[in-house]
């Protein structure tokens, strides 16, 4: 009797599995060639490969072993890592519409008002409307120039991964994730500040102090009844938060990296200071319009962005299946383009770890999104709309610092001892502060 029951159960299980296999359509993973993937562990997948170093370092190490297009399971999130110029061009240009979404996370949902900003908003009609407003009304070359007097005043004064995201089906983690409650608390504080900010601008007449600022422009657009998507206060606050986080944090980080590299490379420091001082001999200060003549300074900034892109990993999400480097990238996959790794790849750069601004002399390579070995601002539809704004916030302050002061290390320290260790975060800054002694040149 027991033997018959065992045979019946085994036969029933076999029939059930056979029916399930026949009724289940073949998934893309069975019919398409997926990118190579290292051996993984149960539950955590490949998360153990990221332990011990910053993500962009760890991902370069893994792709150097397994190839420039790699599939990783980060918890439950299927992620494709891209670390070559050719694959990046296919993902960000050839298949740009299919790869134009952003991955979602708890932090960005909370702090960026449910993805209603530009940087983290899904690819949609709303995103296109808000990006158009930002490009035409906020960040056009004309408007960036019009904000120059504000930057000039400030410069003159100067001369100052979530676990729950990786396991979305583990609902308990979303409850236990303490960082979520910290973010909600921060969001409430940010809300209070930005609400006050908007109220102050509404109380003042637009243009009372000599022209519109970014908040005035957004409030004016809010009154435009012809927009497809009416702009709410939360939408405005999300855009402002974009400007502060992406526009100021990345700029100050780039200046810090540039000064550290210049101190470690005295030949480059002497050359860029000579250019600036020769161009503006006798001037008390440098105006923003003057910076355009400083060719070598621009090369210094380019080289800084190559070695130290403020955002080393560019995140995308697939809206549709696409092929990259001969591999299928399935719908809803997360894509990470390691721009930091490509900026240090010896296949594209001679002496890739050396700080040599001259490499960009007589070179057509630029950061406008056409040379995919060098994309610190991204590329394609998601290229940073505030690129001109960010560069303006780097060029003038750096020029002023190098024009007005000579720089030396504190007593007992040497330039080669500057700690270049990186810190993690939204932007990758230096882990420890840069302490230099300014002196007024003769």
Q: How would you spell out the order of helices and strands? A: HHHEEHHHHHHHHHHHHEEEEHHEE
Low-confidence stretches: 1-29, 146-160
Radius of gyration of CA atoms, rounded to a whole number: 25 Å
Instruction: Compute the number of strand runs.
Output: 8
What is the C-level CATH assignment?
Mainly Alpha
Our estimate of the beta-strand percent is 5-15%
Largest sheet: 4 strands, mixed
Mean pLDDT: 84
- CATH fourth-tier homologous superfamily: Cytochrome P450
CATH architecture heading:
Orthogonal Bundle
Q: How many domains make up the coordinates?
A: 1
In helices, the fraction of residues equals 40-55%
Number of helices in the DSSP assignment: 17
CATH topology grouping:
Cytochrome p450
Terminus-to-terminus distance = 105 Å
Shape: globular
Strand line-up of the largest beta sheet: 1-2-6-3
Based on secondary structure, the structural category is: alpha+beta
Cofactor: heme
Family: Belongs to the cytochrome P450 family.
Membrane topology: Single-pass type II membrane protein
GO molecular function, one term: heme binding
């Amino acid at each position: 009797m027991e033997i018959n029951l065992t045979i019946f159960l085994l036969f029933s299980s076999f029939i059930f599995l056979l029916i399930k296999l026949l009724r289940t359509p073949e998934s893309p993973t069975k019919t398409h060639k997926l990118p190579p993937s290292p051996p993984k562990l149960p539950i955590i997948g490949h998360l153990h490969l990221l332990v011990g170093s910053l993500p962009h370092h760890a991902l370069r190490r893994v792709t150097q072993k397994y190839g420039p297009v790699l599939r990783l399971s980060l918890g439950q999130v299927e992620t494709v890592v891209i670390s070559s110029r050719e694959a990046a061009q296919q993902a960000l240009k050839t298949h740009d519409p299919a790869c134009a979404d952003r991955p979602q996370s708890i932090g960005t949902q909370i702090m960026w008002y449910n993805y209603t900003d530009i940087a983290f908003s899904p690819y949609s009609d709303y995103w296109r409307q808000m990006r158009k407003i930002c490009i035409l009304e906020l960040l056009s070359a004309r408007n960036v120039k019009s904000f120059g007097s504000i930057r000039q005043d400030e410069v003159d004064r100067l001369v100052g991964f979530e676990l729950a995201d990786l396991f979305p089906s583990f609902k308990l983690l979303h409850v236990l994730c303490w960082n979520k409650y910290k973010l909600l608390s921060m969001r409430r504080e940010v809300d209070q500040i930005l609400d006050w900010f908007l109220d102050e601008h509404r109380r003042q007449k637009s243009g009372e102090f000599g022209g519109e600022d970014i908040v005035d422009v957004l409030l004016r657009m809010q009154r435009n009844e012809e927009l497809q998507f009416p702009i709410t206060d939360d939408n405005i606050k999300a855009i402002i938060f974009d400007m502060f986080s992406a526009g100021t944090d990345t700029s100050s980080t780039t200046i810090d990296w540039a000064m550290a590299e210049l101190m470690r490379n005295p030949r480059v420091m002497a050359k860029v200071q000579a250019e600036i001082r020769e161009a503006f001999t006798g001037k008390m200060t440098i105006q923003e319009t003057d910076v355009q003549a400083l060719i070598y300074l621009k090369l210094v900034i380019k080289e800084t962005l190559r070695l130290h892109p403020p955002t080393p990993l560019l995140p995308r999400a697939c809206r549709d299946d696409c092929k990259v480097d001969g591999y299928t990238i399935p719908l809803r996959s997360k894509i990470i383009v390691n721009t930091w790794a490509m900026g240090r790849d010896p296949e594209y750069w001679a002496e890739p770890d050396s700080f040599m601004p001259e490499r960009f002399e007589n070179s057509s390579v630029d950061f406008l999104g056409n040379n995919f070995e060098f994309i610190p601002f991204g590329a394609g539809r998601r290229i940073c709309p505030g690129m001109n704004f960010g560069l303006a916030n780097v060029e003038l302050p750096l020029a002023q610092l190098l024009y007005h002061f000579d720089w030396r290390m504190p007593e007992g320290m040497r330039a080669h001892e500057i700690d270049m260790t990186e810190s993690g975060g939204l932007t990758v800054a230096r882990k420890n502060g840069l302490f230099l002694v300014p002196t007024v040149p003769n």
